[in-house]
């Protein structure tokens, strides 16, 4: 799970959401060297390959700096990724963060999303406006979820079957609303390894941070958990 790839601007509140371009390139290269194969959300959820560990690279929110800095390292390592978009804010800023004093960051517009897709990457839905779904009425949550799917499909002409809970906030009712809207999977922020027993609407993810003191040891533990 990534959010922003680029230098951290002065005054940012959520420093852990930034990964420098150099570190992102190194992390993707280390995953490749550790034997991971890149997978789409569909490929990861259909079957389980015990001989070649697979990893799905995800980005939340649709920040433009991902387009600027992530495409080349992904291509060099033959990795594919999915970007979970907030269609109500395409071409705008991270409005959900600004009231808390966060630094504004540009979100991809429709043409940039098409550039992302043309490079072989996927898109998924992240609600219309990035609210905390668990705090909304069920009616409002349903609208945020369903409208995001329809908006992205209408704009980009592709099926949008994968969802991501903003802030990792969800409960059983929210999960059922996502399933009812026609999505096939939903990602959480719970760190864990996914297996064939994982509920497809409760997919775990490991957050990639700006620093990792022992990246090779972390990768070794992940591989061990996937095979044992």
Provide a compact summary of the structure.
By secondary structure, the protein is an alpha/beta fold.
CATH superfamily: Glycoside hydrolase/deacetylase
* Overall pLDDT level: 91
CATH class: Alpha Beta
Number of strands: 9
Query: Can you tell me the residue ranges where pLDDT is under 50 for at least 5 consecutive residues?
Result: none
End-to-end C-alpha gap: 23 Å
Q: Treating each run of at least 4 consecutive H or I residues as one helix, how many helices? A: 8
CATH topology: TIM Barrel
Largest sheet: 3 strands, parallel
CATH architecture: Alpha-Beta Barrel
What's the Cα radius of gyration?
17 Å
Q: How many separate domains?
A: 1
- The arrangement of helices and strands along the chain is EEHEHEEHHEHEHEHEH
Structural class: alpha/beta
Please bin the fraction of helical residues: 25-40%
Strand content: 5-15%
Strand order of the largest sheet: 5-6-7
Shape: globular
């Amino acid at each position: 799970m990534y959010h922003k790839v680029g230098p951290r601007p002065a005054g940012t509140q959520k420093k852990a959401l930034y990964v420098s371009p150099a570190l992102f390139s190194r992390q993707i290269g280390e995953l490749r060297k550790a034997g991971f194969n890149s997978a789409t959300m569909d490929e990861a959820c259909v079957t389980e390959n015990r001989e070649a560990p697979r990893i799905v690279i995800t980005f939340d929110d649709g920040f433009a700096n991902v387009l600027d800095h992530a495409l080349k390292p992904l291509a060099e390592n033959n990795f594919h990724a999915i970007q979970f978009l907030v269609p109500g804010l395409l071409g705008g800023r991270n409005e959900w963060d600004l009231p808390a004093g966060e630094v504004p960051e540009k979100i991809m517009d429709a043409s940039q999303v098409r550039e992302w897709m043309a490079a072989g990457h996927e898109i998924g839905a992240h609600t219309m406006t990035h609210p905390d779904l668990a705090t909304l009425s069920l009616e409002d949550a349903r609208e945020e979820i369903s409208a995001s799917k329809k908006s992205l499909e209408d704009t980009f002409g592709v099926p949008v079957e994968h969802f991501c809970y903003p802030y990792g906030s969800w409960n059983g009712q929210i999960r059922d609303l996502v399933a009812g809207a026609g999505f096939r999977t939903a990602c959480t922020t719970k760190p864990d390894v996914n297996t064939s027993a994982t509920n497809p609407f409760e997919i775990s993810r490991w957050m990639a941070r700006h620093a990792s003191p022992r990246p090779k040891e972390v990768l070794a533990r992940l591989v061990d958990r996937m095979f044992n």
